[in-house]
Design goal:
400 residues; four-stranded mixed sheet; 30% helix; five-stranded mixed sheet; binds oxa(dethia)-CoA; Peroxisomal Thiolase, Chain A, domain 1; alpha/beta
């Protein structure tokens, strides 16, 4: 009996979306007992983005998805399967992927969410690849989208400084051309189950006045344990994927790691004996966007010219569960294709249908609303305290 042949898979599209509102370390200094110096030296994060009240995980995911579809040169209707990774869905049901399907104007795809926390995008990528390889789909959309700022405890300085909002997406397509081997590694270690968790709201502890009073609808984390897991696992998961692709780490041109903490990324570089310029970092601008972190970083790395056709790249993530995942693949798409996507798809043109006769509460946490409503502080060097009305002082004296 002949072996069934596997359909080849290529990454053909990529796109990202970040909300425009910036929450800086200086803003956080006004909310909790922290400092820009502490946050930058311990994490590398300088600012993160916050979704506006009208935005949701689905709306951000839909913008990133349409940009990825544009980059792939496809129409939304060409997509056969939509997988959306998130730990902050719009609702418990339906899936956020279903909302995105309608928002992008696709009628034929089957759509579902995957939940593997910050590793979710890599898990979704692996799932979509398997569907295409099996001949069950031609074009798959994989989205990582998160609206974490609505699930943070703004009295807990060890977590609220880390996370931000955003979305990234890729399109995977069946290809008739031969494709270099792709290495995929996924791991799950449930002994880490309660290291990063959101205690209430599920069937174990349904929402109640008590769970709200106890702050159990916000993310909790054992930072040091998570840090230990991350530094141990990211390098080994990346290496396993590299091995499955048939390479050694010296063959790798660029690693796109989960953007959680620059010290974790430095530890991965050390563990793999690679210089830091082989690891892409953009967490200074976005903080940790969980499942959106890798696809946002991937899209930015490619659009910034860090990836060429033929480059061997690895993306690798870790997260609650504990989970980890890595994909090692040779880049084949023209990097220039993604650079027009932001202008081609404007967020204001993308709508997620709202339910009839139902108004959600104001979704912005009060602590954040207060900070975001503030007039912008004057730059420190501009001391206007002793400025009095009168004749302006001439900088250049007129020539006589
Ligand atoms: O996607 C996965 C998500 N999670 C992660 O990636 C988290 C991984 N862990 C980390 O990135 C780091 O553990 C943190 C950034 C969370 C914390 O850094 P750390 O170097 O491990 O600090 P620590 O928890 O050991 O805390 C050191 C000190 C403590 O004070 P004491 O007990 O030494 O007096 C904390 O209370 O720093 C204090 N601290 C802060 N100080 C100022 C904790 N958070 C802050 C803060 N500002 N925001």
């Amino acid at each position: 009996m002949s072996q069934p042949t596997q359909q080849s898979v290529k990454l053909t599209g990529w796109g990202r979306y970040a909300p425009s509102q910036v929450l800086s370390n200086a803003d956080l200094e006004r909310m909790v007992d922290t400092s820009d110096e502490w946050i930058v030296s311990r994490t590398g994060i300088r600012e993160r983005r916050v979704a506006a009240a009208h935005e949701t995980t689905a709306s951000m995911g839909a913008v990133a998805a349409l940009r990825a579809i544009h980059t792939a040169g496809l129409q939304p209707e060409d997509i056969d399967i939509i997988i959306l990774a998130t730990l902050t869905p719009d609702y418990w049901m339906p899936s956020t992927a279903a909302l995105v399907k309608e928002a992008i104007g696709n009628t034929k795809a089957f759509a579902f969410d995957v939940m593997a926390a910050c590793s979710g995008f890599v898990y979704g990528y692996a799932t979509a690849s398997a569907y295409i390889q099996a001949g069950l789909a031609k074009h798959a959309l994989v989205i990582g989208a998160e609206l974490l700022t609505r699930f943070l405890d703004y009295t807990d300085r060890s977590t609220c400084i880390l996370f931000g909002d955003g979305a990234g997406a890729v399109v995977l397509s069946a290809s008739d051309e031969p494709v270099s081997p792709v290495g995929i590694e996924l791991t799950t270690e449930p002994q880490g189950a309660y290291m990063i968790w959101l205690p209430a709201g599920g069937s174990k502890s349904p929402p109640s006045p008590e769970t709200i009073a106890r702050g159990e609808h916000k993310i909790r984390m054992e930072g040091r344990e998570t840090y230990r897991f991350a530094t141990r696992t990211l390098a080994s998961t990346a290496l396993a994927a590299v091995g499955k692709a048939g390479w050694t780490q010296d063959d790798v041109d660029l690693i796109i790691p989960h953007q959680a903490n620059v010290r974790i990324i430095e530890a991965v570089a050390k563990g793999l004996d690679l210089p830091m310029d082989k690891l892409y970092v953009n967490l200074d601008k976005y903080g940790n966007t969980s499942a959106a972190s890798v696809p946002i970083a991937l899209a930015e790395a490619v659009n910034e010219g860090r990836v060429d056709v033929g480059d061997r790249i690895v993306f690798v993530a870790f997260g609650a569960g504990f989970t980890s995942g890595a994909v090692a693949m040779e880049w084949t798409a023209d990097p220039a294709r993604g650079r027009t996507a932001d202008d081609a798809v404007r967020p204001e043109d993308v709508t997620v249908r709202a339910p009839i006769d139902w108004d959600s509460v104001d979704p912005i946490p009060p602590a954040l609303a207060e900070i975001l409503a503030r007039p912008l502080p004057l730059p420190a060097e501009l001391d206007l305290s002793d400025v009095v009305p009168g004749e302006p002082e001439l900088v250049h004296q007129p020539t006589r």
